[in-house]
Amino acid sequence: MLGICRGRRKFLAASLTILFVPAITWIYLFAGSFEDGKPVSLSPLESQPQSPRYAASSQRESLEVRVRQVEEENRALRQQLSLAQGARPRRGNHSRTYSMEEGTGDSESLRAGIVAGNSSECGQQPAVEKCETIHVAIVCAGYNASRDVVTLVKSVLFHRRNPLHFHLVADAIAKQILATLFQTWMVPAVRIDFYDADELKSEVSWIPNKHYSGIYGLMKLVLTKTLPPNLERVIVLDTDITFATDIAELWAVFHKFKGQQVLGLVENQSDWYLGNLWKNHRPWPALGRGYNTGVILLLLDKLRKMKWEQMWRLTAERELMSMLSTSLADQDIFNAVIKQNPFLVYQLPCFWNVQLSDHTRSEQCYRDVSDLKVIHWNSPKKLRVKNKHVEFFRNLYLTFLEYDGNLLRRELFGCPSEADVNSENLQKQLSELDEDDLCYEFRRERFTVHRTHLYFLHYEYEPAADSTDVTLVAQLSMDRLQMLEAICKHWEGPISLALYLSDAEAQQFLRYAQGSEVLMGRHNVGYHIVYKEGQFYPVNLLRNVAMKHISTPYMFLSDIDFLPMYGLYEYLRKSVIQLDLANTKKALIVPAFETLRYRLSFPKSKAELLSMLDMGTLFTFRYHVWTKGHAPTNFAKWRTATTPYRVEWEADFEPYVVVRKDCPEYDRRFVGFGWNKVAHIMELDAQEYEFTVLPNAYMIHMPHAPSFDITKFRSNKQYRICLKTLKEEFQQDMSRHYGFAALKYLTAENNS
After folding, report:
1. In degrees rounded to 5, what are phi and psi of residue 666?
2. Which residue spans traverse the membrane (predicted)?
3. Is 169 in the same domain as 284?
4. Quick one: which of 19, 259, 242 has its CA closest to 152?
């Protein structure tokens, strides 16, 4: 009892101190100003004689300094008082009320941060340890969201100085895309873990949601249950976020959380939750303007102890009885929980989530470019949103959109990285190469890991019921982009394309495709971006990427410069059945022709094609420069053939064929121009594939300027020497692998 009385006396004394110190201070200051008609000096130095105007100004500035000092002392006393209150034992079943100040960050610091910008906030934050891992969670689903994630990750990687661990809650599509991307990106000190979003649907599917993000927009609610139980804290980001600073600065804010604060959020910068946007607008309950959940700091360990799962579920069930559905997905439910429990929130300064939707107060979050930390494109309009400084924001976003991701493969010096088997194997293979070898760059290209973004655009494919479907496979670079529309008009079946582009070119392609009615009308075309790296065009790697990601049992191995005859897709499906391709090792040859005319009236039948051959409008492919490549097709026989016929392999044979999807890959040692298809056909022959020419099929090569690689082949003697060396090594490898049967390739080469 005596202890309680003493505690109350201390509390009373502290309270009186807070009340009287400011009063005494002001009395002292103002009394001093009237004594003997002289102002009291608030400076430790004696003031010099001054003019009346300057003296008044100096007096006012000194007074402001002293008042700020007194306010700081009062703030410290209030803090001590609140700590003393918190330490007092709570007796009985008294309920405790929480003020807004207790449930947010320091409002004075918040205002100072908005006015002064980044520097003051950064200076106050405890430093994050040099090699401390920062955990980031992102919910991602579908093809378009996967592209957004890449831009977000680029902006984070550009500024970061710490190891990163990304926790990606992804559907099957996003997982396939992003797993391949990060595996081929090979960024040091970055770890990726995936969590199956489809398995989480049952956790939130009972909540009606009107937001465009759909069911995936609710999955941040279940992160405490989804993420590893030993993970204590995580930064949660929307996919439409762009970082303009080191994410470690945001991670450091966790150290500012006090008491029961478990959520770090920025206030919503629109009037949505105020309910005054339009007549009869009825938003979910929120504290004041509410909070935006595009950027969240989650203290997972404390949330689990608070039974967060039960807390948000009960709140959602109660509110849905009157609201019927959410309008802003998880954000509505987070705000409803916070309305009931304001002590959960630490309010982040608004520059940690500058929200660029229409009708927001985002311009109050910054006064200069240096104030910006996180930009949030949270409007369905995205880059077309209205904002006074939208051009600057758009340019910042486009900078990361087109930034070369290969430059982000930099080491974090002084931080040990987890052992990466793929990276170690790559380094071992490269170390075995002789850097003094004149063909070193050719050999090195075989082991280069190119960053790969699968399904860059939306893709849909419905498998054919009769299992005869055929995918056209090809590869291209930016200078062949104009062929895409024509190919789509000639081939109605599925297509798998590998595009060799830089990050900037990938965005040009995206704009080109989105502006094309023909391309946007086709959803069964898979576009796989292989990002540029090195000096050679990795033609066979591109073919392998396109081959690997087909969804049909058969594929037509073509090139982007060829237009297939009208109706070839259906003809090949019938031929697959007729020639029993499912149960036999066959390669069905589509005879190749070419024209030198840029404008061609495409033949609609074999008879029309033969007529054009006779008139000299068309030629058999490479008739003038490389007859051996297609001579074994036997065009003389094809002219009159009505049934498929078999041909034998010959040296340098490189036809375009239809094969099962399990056929061998192309050999990656061949890059640029020369022997890339020849080697593949040779391997098919070694594996005893039967070459069968289709009598009523054809394709026509369209003219174009010579590629850069063929120019190098023709002008660079060392290029030709290295190609010859690689060719001989390939033949030796074939002999070792296939034994006696492969000797004919050496003999044929010597006789040719």
Report:
1. -75, 150
2. 12-31
3. yes
4. 242
Q: Is 638 helix (H, G, I), strand (E, B) or coil?
A: helix
Residues written for the chain: 752
Rounded-to-integer distance, Cα 481 and Cα 519, Å: 11
Residue 513 structural domain: 452-745
Secondary structure (3-state) at 637:
helix
* Amino acid identity at 5: C
Q: Centre a 10 Å sphere on the Cβ of residue 273 and count the other Cβ atoms it contains.
A: 25
Q: What is the pTM of this model?
A: 0.80
Q: Are residues 238 and 337 in the same domain?
A: yes
Are 251 and 371 in the same domain? yes
Q: What is the pLDDT of residue 39?
A: 40
User: Is 288 inside any structural domain?
Assistant: yes
Is residue 540 located within the same domain as residue 667? yes
Amino acid 678: pLDDT: 92
Instruction: Find the Cα–Cα–Cα–Cα dihedral 462, 453, 550, 545, rounded to 10°.
Output: 170
Query: What is d(CA 119, CA 245) in angstroms, rounded to the nearest whole number?
Result: 12
Residue 294 burial by Cβ neighbours in a 10 Å radius (0-12, 13-18, 19+)? buried
At 444-465, the pLDDT tens digits run 888 889 999 999 999 999 888 8
Residue 309 forms part of a structural domain: yes
- Whether residue 290 contacts residue 272, with contact meaning beta carbons closer than 8 Å, is answered with yes
Rounded to whole angstroms, what are the CA distances from 181 to 174, 175, 321?
10, 10, 43
507: CATH: 3.90.550.10
* Ranges of the chain with pLDDT below 70: 1-126, 276-278, 358-360, 362, 379-388, 419-421, 424, 432, 706-708, 747-752
Residue 486 and residue 599 share a domain: yes
Residue 115 lies in a domain: no
Q: Are residues 470 and 346 in the same domain?
A: no
d(CA 536, CA 539): 9
Give Rg (Cα) of the chain: 35
Measured CA to CA in angstroms, residue 720 lies from 179, 716, 743 at distances of 38, 7, 24
Per-residue burial over 569-591, b if 16 or more Cβ lie within 10 Å, else e, is: bebbbebbeebebeeeebbbbbb
- For position 72, what pLDDT does the model report? 62
| pLDDT the model gives residue 298 | 97
Written as six digits, the tokens of 568 are 């070839």
Classify residue 488: in a domain, yes or no: yes
Cα–Cα distances (Å) from 410 to 163, 384, 406, 413, 741, in that order, read 11, 33, 9, 9, 47
State CA 416 to chain mean position distance.
25
Instruction: For residues 489 and 605, state if they share a domain.
Output: yes
Contact 589, 693 (CB under 8 A): yes
- Predicted pLDDT of residue 210: 85
The Cα–Cα gap between 646 and 693 comes to 6
The CA-based angle 223-227-229, given to 5 degrees, is: 115
Is 291 strand, coil or helix? strand
Strands of 495-501's sheet in order across? 452-453, 525-531, 495-501, 470-477, 554-557, 656-660, 586-590, 690-693, 645-647
Range list of β-strands (E), 572-731: 586-590, 592-594, 619-620, 645-647, 656-660, 690-693, 699-701
pLDDT at 109: 40
Name the phi and psi angles at 107, rounded to 5.
-65, -35
Domain count, the chain: 2
**Phi, psi (degrees; rounded to nearest 5) at 153:** -65, -40
